[in-house]
Amino acid sequence: MTGAFSRISRLSYSAVRRGFASSSARPVVPEHNRITVGFVAKTFAVCSVTAVGISAALPDDLSLGLAPSGADAFNLIENGMHPPHLGWEHREWNKTFDHESIRRGYQVYREICAACHSMSLLSWRNLVGVSHSEDEVKAMAAEYEYQDGPNDQGEYFQRPGKLSDRLPSAYPNEEAARAANGGAYPPDLSCIVKARHGEEDYIFSLLLGYSDPPPGISLRDGLHFNRYFPGGAISMARALYDEVVDYEDGTPNNASQLAKDVTTFLSWASYPEHDDRKLTGMRAITLSVLLTVLSVWYKRFKWAPIKSRQIVFKLPKAREV
């Protein structure tokens, strides 16, 4: 056994020596090959910068709207009906949020959704420059009372809201929310679009997907049938109807428009960096294109003549003695 191991070791050592010898005997890479490798490396670097710009411009949650198939298909009993893919304008690579729709969506949230749902991650200052002016947001925040303190006497007091405060919640805690809603807990809507499969399509379809239960299905008291909700039974009753909210700008206030606007508002709340991300991506792509053009020009008019230049040494003639 020991002899076999020693023979294997000698053979391995010989193979390694031959490998090192062959690698050291390889010819040096020619000059034109090194130039090609350098050009490929530069091209790869430019493509990498462009890819970073594209990844910054496009949302990381880009939905292709592909219909489910096979094991990924939605089942009504387990996961609810798959929502149809809708053409949200802000999902296009060169489009931003419709800020007028965000303003209307906030109005729908304030008058309808805020009665049960909170947005604990959103501050009043986040609305400034997006859907409202600073004076408008200050006036809206001042309509609510916030507990602050302690003061110099060690007592807590109530004060009007200010820009740094979070949007108020309908309930002080989860237990109070469940007690007021028959045991169901209304989820926080700060990141609801990001947290749901289908994102805007799911939220929009859920808000309008109420109907009578199909024959043979009975729901207990306090539940409502919604074909897009997992299991089909949801505790939240339908909240959006035609003309339930009067828009300040006179936009038609049918149920579909209300659902579209509040979904846009919730999408902005989930992706507040959306517009800045696309702008940064466009700048990165533009910069990479300019750098590519500059590098091509520099190589063509600066280095091409230098690399193709031939230097000839002319030896002087020998003097005759």
Automatic annotation (TrEMBL):
Cofactor comment: Binds 1 heme c group covalently per subunit.
Pfam families associated with the record: Cytochrom_C1
Swiss-Prot/TrEMBL catalytic activity: a quinol + 2 Fe(III)-[cytochrome c](out) = a quinone + 2 Fe(II)-[cytochrome c](out) + 2 H(+)(out)
One GO molecular-function entry: metal ion binding
Keywords, alphabetical: Electron transport, Heme, Iron, Membrane, Metal-binding, Mitochondrion, Mitochondrion inner membrane, Respiratory chain, Transmembrane, Transmembrane helix, Transport
Enzyme class label: translocase
Cofactor: heme c
Binding-site positions, heme c: 113, 116-117, 236
EC numbers on record: 7.1.1.8
InterPro entries listed in its UniProt record: Cyt_c-like_dom, Cyt_c-like_dom_sf, Cyt_c1, Cyt_c1_TM_anchor_C
UniProt cross-references to PANTHER family, sorted A to Z: CYTOCHROME C1, CYTOCHROME C1, HEME PROTEIN, MITOCHONDRIAL
Record-stated family: Belongs to the cytochrome c family.
Name assigned to this protein: quinol--cytochrome-c reductase
Organism per entry: Physocladia obscura
